[in-house]
Each structure stands twice: as C-alpha cells, then as structure tokens.
Amino acid sequence: MSALADLLARTRAENRPALVGYLPAGFPDKQTAIDAMVAMVEGGVDIVEVGLPYSDPVMDGLTIQRAADAALAGGTKVADVLDTVEAVAATGAPTLIMTYWNPVERVGVEDFASRLAAAGGAGLITPDLIPDEAEEWVSASDAHGLDRVFLVAPSSTDERLAMTAQASSGFLYATSVMGVTGTRSATSNAAPTLVSRVRAVSDIPVGVGLGVSNGDQAAEVGEFADLVIVGSALVARLLGAGSDTAKGVADVRRLAEDLRAGVERARTADRPLDKGALA
Amino acid sequence: MTSTSASADPRPSSLPDEHGHFGRFGGRFMPEALIAPLDELERAWREAVVDPTFTAELDRMLREYANVPSPLYEATRLSERAGARFLLKREDLNHTGAHKVRNVLGQALLTKRMGKHRVIAETGAGQHGVATATACAYLDLECVVYMGEVDTQRQALNVARMQMLGATVIPVTTGSRTLKDAINEALRDWVSTVDDTHYLLGTAAGAHPFPEIVRDLTRGIGDEARAQSLELTGALPDAAAACVGGGSNAIGLFAGFLHDDAVRLYGFEAGGDGFETGRHAATITAGDVGVLHGTRSYLLQDEDGQTIESHSISAGLDYPGVGPEHAYLAETGRASYEPVTDDEAMAAFDLLCKTEGIIPAIESAHALAGALRLAPRLAEELGRPATILVNLSGRGDKDVHTAAEYFGLLDKDDA
What we know:
Helix content of chain B: 40-55%
CATH topology of the largest domain in chain B: Rossmann fold
Number of domains of chain B: 2
CATH topology of chain A: TIM Barrel
Oligomer: heterodimer
CATH architecture of chain A: Alpha-Beta Barrel
Order of helices and strands of chain A: HEHEHHEHHEHEEHEHEHEHH
Distance between the termini of chain B: 53 Å
Strand content of chain A: 5-15%
Helix content of chain A: 40-55%
Number of strands of chain A: 9
Shape of chain A: globular
Strand order of the largest sheet of chain A: 5-4-3-2-1-9-8-7-6
Largest interface: A-B, 42 and 35 residues
CATH class of the largest domain in chain B: Alpha Beta
Radius of gyration of chain A: 17 Å
Number of domains of chain A: 1
CATH class of chain A: Alpha Beta
Structural class of chain B: alpha/beta
Structural class of chain A: alpha/beta
Largest sheet of chain B: 7 strands, mixed
Number of strands of chain B: 15
Number of helices of chain B: 16
CATH architecture of the largest domain in chain B: 3-Layer(aba) Sandwich
Shape of chain B: globular
Number of helices of chain A: 12
C-alpha cells in the first residue's frame, strides 16, 4: 500500500477528511516555498501538492498564475521542483506534484517517474492529462509505485467518471465548479452531486478542490468529500506578504491550522449549523 | 496515383482517427471539464456536415457574403521573373481580406446550430478577431475576443475594427501577453461558460475536434484550386505552397491535393531574424514534439518543456506551436516544411507589389518567397519550368505600416 493510501485509510478510520494543501515550487523563492510547505504540514495539512510552474497554465486563475510566472521568472527548473518534493516528503507527509503534462513529456515520462520516486514523491496530479492519453504514464507510474490522480468535473459523463476512477490511484480529484482555480466566497453545490455520482461507480477516495479558502468552507466540503483540497487561498498568503517571507510562511501556517480545525469538525455533531458558507 | 480524374478527390480524409490522432500527433490534452463539451462539438460537427440544410446555408453565405470561391490567377509578370509558372489562389479577395472568413463563418453557423449565443476567440494581430467579430455581427452572436496586451498596443487599429463590429476586446495581461496567452485566457473563459459559449478557435490546432473542423472548413481553398488549376492549365500544379503559422490556410490548401502524389506540398514557416538567431517561429523545422494548447505536435520549448516565445515580422505566423496534421504530414514526408526569413518574405512582398500590383499579407509573402526559392530547384528536377500554386492567403492592407517601416518609407517621426 502506498503512503498516500495508508494515510487515506487512516483518515477514513478517524472519520475525518484529509487536508490537501497546494503551493507552487519556487515561489517566492525555492527555500521559502519549501519552508511554507513544511509549515503547512506542521499546521495540519496531511498531503502536499507541489505545483510545477508552467508557462501556459490554462486551468489556473490569476492567483496561481501570478505565483507561477514569478517562480519561472526566478529561474525555477524541474530539478528544483524535485528538490522541493524531496525536502517536503522528508516531513512524512505524502507529497505529489501537480503538473501540466508537457514538462513531464519533455523530461521523458519514464525518467520523470523514476526521479519523482527517488525523491520520495507519492505521484502526480495531472490537470490536462486525461486517462485516454495516459498510456505511457500508466505504465511508468505502475513501474515506480506512484499514484495517478486524474480529474473529474461536473460535465463528466457517468461513463467517463467510471473510466477515470478506474484509471486513478490514491484518490480522484473532483473539480467542484466549472472554472479555473481561485478562491470563491461560496463553494459550489455541484460538488456534493459530483461526489455522489463518483461514489455510485467507485469506492476510490474523492478530493474536492477549487474554491475552498477557510476552515468553515473546509468543514462544509469535508462533510461529503474524502479530501479537502486548498490551493489559491494558501498561495494568496504568500503573494500578500510580498517580500516579508517570514510573514508569508507564518500566514500559511495559520491558514493551515484554521483549515485543519475545519476538517476536524467536518463530521462532528457540534459543527455549527451554518450553511452560509455554501449558500 | 491511379486516378487522374478532373473532379476533386472524392476520398474523405481518413485522419484523424476516432481519438483525434494524426499518427502520434493530435489528441486531447485538456481539462476533463472540457471533454464533454469537445465531444458535443464533435457530434454537432459530424451531424452538420452531412445535413444538406447546413451545408447549403454555409455555401450560400460563403458565395453571397464572403466572395468565395476566390479566383485562381496566373501571375504572368511574376512568372517571367521567377522561372516558373505561378498560379495564385486569391484568398486575399475574400471578405475581411483572408482565408479566415471560411473558418469563422462555418464555426459561427455551427454555434447557432448548437443553440449557443456567445462566441469567444483569441487573436494575435487581430485578423482572426476581426473575422470572428464580422461573423458574429452577421449572425447576431455575442462576441468576446481575447488579445494579448502587447498585441492590443501593436495593433490598435484592429482593436478599433473589432469594437466597431460590436465585439468586446479583452486585453490579456498574464504570461508573455501575446497570442499564446490569449489562447490560455480564452480556454479559461470557456471552461466556465461552455454551456452557452462556443470557442471559435482560429487555426487548425488545439484539441480534437478543432484541427479537423478547421481543416474541413478551409479545404475549399484546395478543392477549388485543384479544379481551377485543371481548368486553367489542363493539369495539376507540380507544387502547392502555403505559409504555416498554426497552419489553417496551408492545411486547407493541402487537403485538396493530399491524394495527388505528383503534387509536392510545401509549407513555409516564419524564419524571423534567421534560424541561427533563435528568434523565429519555425516550429516544425526547429521545434520538438510536445503538448501545447490541447494537442501533441511540434512546438518551441526549452529543456523543461516551457513554451518559448516565437518571433516573426508577420504577426499571423508568430505562434510557438503548429497544427497536429502538419506535424504528421512532416513526419510522413507527404509535405515539406522550410523556414523563410523576414528579409526573404519582404523581398517577395516587394516583388509581388511591383510585378503584379498586389500587396500581399506578410504571411502570404512567406509562401511566395518559399515558392520563389523552390522554382529553380523544381526546374532542375523536372527538366522544365515548374507550375507552382501559391496560396495568397491574405491581403496586405493590415501590414502597410509594418512594410512602410521595413522599407524606410516613413519619416522618422511617423515610425
């Protein structure tokens, strides 16, 4: 069983959702990004998504684009992303790379998989790779014991939900709204519908992302999702702190604590019956 | 080659396959959220092309509104200078001044058929944006055009044109602020608006089924030119040449001749300042296989797979990717692709102006320059002067300022 599967079995036994935090490698610089990811884990994040900054991130909203642009302008390379994975995985938290497909294909799918495994990485989340095009990645991930996290969306047909769940390992990433990444004041009610549609065809854990920005929303989403995925809100803390990187890291830690408290109370009776966060 | 029938080749293109692949190229590298809409688009397109109501309406629009079919013109003075018989497919005479009107009218009509009322598009220099805004005005569709902020400043007149036609132009301020970023932003719009919005992609690239749709909508260029060539000269040309950026005019031309093995197909890419300078847009010549904007093809990228900015005097060829069918035709050897530098293109531009009284788009001047280079090679190979068909994909009105600057015709204060 992979480290990721282990963890998800544990959180499932504890009847709480797992908390996933995303930050791009190399932003605002390589070391601060690593510090922020470690702080995120110390604050309560269970699983880390390390973003591989890419020149053409079509699934990302402005917040993540700005951070990725800055990371690339700062000279972040694939090798730096793998170093980051190694440093974060050393905390014991399962660490995946979130990457658009071309950088993997450019490095070489087999080579990338081998280097990721050597760095202690758990797998890849691939926002623009669908299982239909993933033959090479399926073989390489099998060979290196890496998890494959594909995405599903409210527009996915039942056939595609089943096929994509079948092709995935670790968990399945459900994009809860039709749109790009970014915090929203209200998460979408399409999310519970999508999760229950997945549950009808598969027992793979389902993560819900796109739009969660605070503990209350995390609690709300954690009621029905196996993993609560938070990205832009964390990135915004680093962007907001500007050159004060110590403050950025501290803000990330504080948000992680708030989110963790949210997932802890997600399925307890004393959770305030405040449906406002999802309204 | 077993047939020399005078009619257009009746065999349908066998590619892409059912997964949208041209050999190892093409496919769909897209967010899952867009897969169902792409499937819907594919279904709608397959139904439309066999529906006589749709095809008759599109034919009528092209004929009455867009001035299609465009003439095939024998450029005799140019031919005397070039050592080959030059036939020019006059797409520059179409409404909006380029071949692109074929694609936008077809996709806009398809948008209506799908019951959608909003169209989004990307544009580099503004030509596809203007064509899309035109089709949307004509068919009463809401139109939003994404354009890199750098390009809105370089091409302010085209921004005004789009606005006159009723379109909203949104400057894109992320990434390199040029065409590729405009495509990214249009995709981001589409993923959240796909229920009522069609993304009217401007070239034969992107995820399946776009390369197929754009090819099928532009293949009139090749089909017409084939019949016109037979009528005018009694034979097929020895070679057919087009410029290649994303590759829509070239794939439209080539589609008419794919099964005519005796007709050599040439695509001329933007060589910019010269291949060796690294400042160019010669994607097939200099690029590597990779994935960009939803398709696997050749692209300009660094060792980490990050897209590299392209450079060309011609905004319409200034794109770091290329359509997947061109990648396939290059790899199989059916078509040859060569770079043409800015200077070569501008020399051909000048020659066509002076010998024929035609001011071509700088994009089309690349095709002409490549064909001029080809003429002696073909003559030697054939033992006689060759007949070369060149797709004059667009007219040069939009390029007058760029050309005037290049040739030093402006006062320093104007430039």
